[in-house]
Each structure stands twice: as structure tokens, then as C-alpha cells.
Known about the structure:
The protein is mainly α. The chain has ten helices and no strands.
Amino acid sequence: MVSVHTLAVFLVASAVLIVVPGPNHVYIAARSLAEGRRAGVASAFGVETGTLVHIAVAAAGLSYLVATSALAFNFVKYAGAAYLVYLGIRTLLSRDPEQATVGRSRQRSLRRVYAEGVVVNVFNPKVILFFLAFLPQFVDPAAGSVPAQIVLLGVVLLLLGLASDLLYAAAAGSLGEWMRVRPRFPRYQRYASGALYLGLGAATALAGPGHRRS
């Protein structure tokens, strides 16, 4: 099993990487800004549920197959990019200025928001590359089952990621509440959120090898 020293080093390294805002953080912040803190929290849990999928894939050794197969990698990459672009266009074309408010968000099932977070993270190719490049550095085949070590490290990373995701959701939600009491800001919220989704879609389409988790 993973040694205490290795786990401590992994915690520090993971914290350093997570503290820097990544695409998942931007997605969660955009969702929370546009639809309220509850939607941001639901997105955070959805994103980290997607991380569970990546952990399972990495433990099964499938991350390497996806990363080394141009067809599989491009499918994941462009599917994720297309979905983010769809979210951006849907947000920008909304004619209801109140659609981005907390009230409307509460009418919409948070299950849908949660599910969209899962999809966004599962089809984030950078997460696949991150698990492939980062986790094996802390795995010692002589210490026992490699899949078990990957699962343990992945769960630790997930918990750190969830903590940071919730902070972004709370901060963006507070900012969104402040903006919504100003008459013109709901429209700007919609434009800003739509632009962020489109930007994330473009970044996902251009994704290549890297060591960032989110």
C-alpha cells in the first residue's frame, strides 16, 4: 500500500496543482455565477463524480489506451468540446433575462445540473492525461496492488478537488447574488457564462498532452 511519506508528498503536490484555477473550476464558477450557489455545488459534485469514472478507468489501465489511441482520444476530446459549445450557445440564445437567476435555477432539476457536470468532466481529455502522467509517479509496484494504489491516490485527489470546487462555487455564487440585484447585470451574466462555456469548449478541442487535472 502507499507509504505515509509518499502520501504526504502526493498531498502537497496535488494541493499545489489544484490551487491553480483550471477548466473545471471555470465551469463550476460560470455555473454558480449564472444560476446560483446551489447549481454551482451540484456542478461540483457532478464534476467529482466524473473523477470517479477517471479513477476507475485509470485503475483498469484504460487511460493509457485512450491516451495512446488517436481515435479514442479525439472522440473524447471533440465530444467534450461539442458539449461545452452546446452549453454556451444554449446560454447565449436564451431570451429570458431571468433564466440565469437563482429562482429559475431552483425550478430546473438540480439532477440535470449535476449530470451535466459529470459529462463535462468525463469528456475532459486533460483529466485522462493528468491521471496517466501524474498518478503513476506515486505508485510503487513493490508496495502492493497497483490498481488499489491508484484508487487510493485518486480518491485523495478527488476529495481535495471537491473542496476547491466548493470554494469556487461559493465565491462565484456570492458574486452572482451581488450582481443580480443590479438591473442590467443578469444579461451580462448570461453573456459572460456563455462566453466562458465557448472558451472552455475551444480549449478542450485544442487539448494535448499536459499535467493539469482540471
